[in-house]
Amino acid sequence: MSTFQSIPLAFHVMAKPTGPICNLGCTYCYYLEKEKIYGQTSRFRMDDALLEKFINEYIATQNVPVIQFTWHGGEPTLSGMDYFRRVLYLQSKYSRGKTIENVLQTNGTLLNDEWCRFFADNHFLIGISVDGPEHVHDRYRLTRSGKPTFAQVMRGLELLVKHKVEFNTLSVVNDYNASFALEIYRFLKAAGSHYMQFTPIVERIAERRPESALHLLAGGDVAEGTLAPWSVKPMDYGKFLCAVFDEWVIGDVGDYFVPTFDSALANWTGVMPSICIHGETCGHAAAIEHNGDVYACDHYVFPEYRLGNIRTDSLVSMMYSPRQTAFGKAKRDALPQYCKECEFLFACNGECPKNRIARTPSNEEGLNYLCAGLRHFYRHISPYMAFMAEELANARPPANVMTWARKRIKPQPVVGTKQLPAEQKTAVRSNAPCPCGSGKKFKECCRNKPVDFAKR
Fold it and tell me: Who's near 5: CB < 8 A, 6+ residues apart?
């Protein structure tokens, strides 16, 4: 009998088989500098013995019928296809009759027909990082030599579509692209994305640290730091979400999915949200590095948040340790009074602890930097969430909200490239999806013809 059968709950451990190693050098990346933790001599690859131990233990220690593996980085495809063939072999060997699912997050630049056939044949769900149209994406998502990556990413995305690989998109909301919410949303729809994750970036850069040290600060780090210039402004983030929501709620409910909206509806109906940042507590999603080190969270890969190493410590002992339990509960227990008295606490739950770097109006520490924008967003969506919650309570589809919402929200005109600033017009490639959201290529749509976009 398995010694793990008494473990009642599932947990998630994000695997980083190549650690922080990546073929790109995105300006805002929070993970590239983690290489400093391990030094130049580290071989950034999870070796076969460690990989086998991780897969075996990860499956064995959870009493759930479906086990999901998430492969992250860095850039996990740098491990090579043979590496993931071995992953599949080991998962089959140790499956114990459970269903195994694989999710892989990639920047998309290394995808080719062979990779996409492999993903399709083995039912991988692919997360592809794309921040929006070319002028948006290439603002920060660059090669290590500073060259743009949009064309490569779009080629990768087109191959996923060609081979019918299920994919989601992940877009980082930053100081620049927060102004182009509808352009980004319509672009992603035109590119074939039906599941869009919009992740706000908030980072602090430490002051007066040697080059060999980590420069980005953890959420609870009290060291002096300067807000990174690429961080999104609170109200800009809130307005970004509102703009996307308004378009979604009048025409896309049930067809296109935004995790932030799904989590809001879950909280409005008293159901646990699928995303930890919107839950009351956290701590059930850790990260395992290439050498077996396990950290409290993907965003807390700092020495002080290391839980142990799988070579010497079991996943169960680390995930249910007093340290990790306290880490998860602190999300709720460390909230300032300002949050505890907020009318939207049930929906926000203080968002991600890593972003709690601000002070409340009464000078209390621990306020989420994005608070103003989040309050703006939740206040804006409140009547629509209440409507959908009522529909669900009466066994009716929440998509009924669209008819109701169309009486209250005026559709925004489709903004095409003829109305964009020169910097943005010249940045759109001919074969890219047209930013107007028509679904056509740019060269077949707005490049050469004047259109009254307000009437489309």
Answer: 63
Do residues 355 and 219 touch, judged by C-beta distance below 8 A? yes
- Judge whether 62 and 10 are in contact, CB under 8 Å: yes
C-alpha to C-alpha distance for 371 and 348, rounded to whole angstroms: 9
The amino acid that residue 142 corresponds to is L
Instruction: List phi, psi (to 5°) of 199.
Output: -105, 120
CA 385 to chain centroid: 22
Whether a cis peptide bond, with omega within 30° of 0, leads into 270 is: no
First to last CA, the chain: 65
In this structure, the chain runs to a length of 456
For residue 69, give the 3-state DSSP assignment. Answer: strand
Q: What is the pTM of this model?
A: 0.89
Phi/psi region, residue 142 (left: phi>0; alpha: psi -120 to 50; beta: rest), is beta
The helix/strand/coil state of 24 is strand
* DSSP code at position 298: G
The one-letter amino acid at 351: E
Block residue for tokens 């071989």: 43
Per residue in 173-228, pLDDT (tens digit) is 999 999 999 999 999 999 999 999 999 999 999 988 888 899 999 987 767 889 99
Distances (CA, A) of 102 to 60, 91, 124, 137: 16, 10, 5, 26
Q: Where are the alpha helices (DSSP H) in 191-273?
A: 234-251, 259-268
Q: Which of 102-106, 138-142, 238-242, 273-277 has the lowest mean pLDDT?
A: 273-277
Cβ contacts of 201 within 8 Å, gap of 6 or more: 28, 30, 172, 173, 174, 228, 230, 231, 232
Conformation bin of residue 330: beta by default, left when phi > 0, alpha when psi is -120 to 50: alpha
- Residues annotated as catalytic (active site), given as ranges: 298
Kindly state the tokens that stand for 265. Answer: 């509806």
CA distance 274 to 311: 30
The mean pLDDT value for 286-291 works out to 97
